[in-house]
Design brief:
A two-stranded antiparallel ribbon has the order 1-2. By secondary structure, it is mainly alpha-helical.
Length: about 90
């Protein structure tokens, strides 16, 4: 998992000297979610894990009912999730 954190595939946040990996990135069978991995790369997680974690977990005013991207992921709304990250990296939101 350390290599995935270093490469920016997974968000890891330092907490009390330990690396904490938010659970939404990992499936129940402990596999990386490939869509999350792709989006994390687009968000440049290696450079700014806190900013990426915030993007994933904070409600977006651009989504119905102010959902957050993790909720879109859980609901299987992958196309909408990709549109949102595209708008984010192209400064359209």
């Amino acid at each position: 998992m350390t290599n995935c954190i270093r490469s920016g595939e997974l968000i890891a946040i330092a907490d009390a000297g330990e690396q904490v990996v938010p659970a939404f990135q990992i499936s129940d069978d402990m596999q990386r979610n490939e869509l999350v991995r792709t989006i994390n790369g687009l968000l440049d997680v290696a450079r700014s894990p806190w900013a990426a974690a915030s993007w994933w977990t904070q409600p977006s005013a651009y989504l119905e009912k102010e959902l957050n991207p993790v909720q879109l992921l859980d609901a299987g709304k992958h196309e909408l999730l990709m549109q949102l990250v595209d708008a984010e990296i192209n400064c359209e939101v």
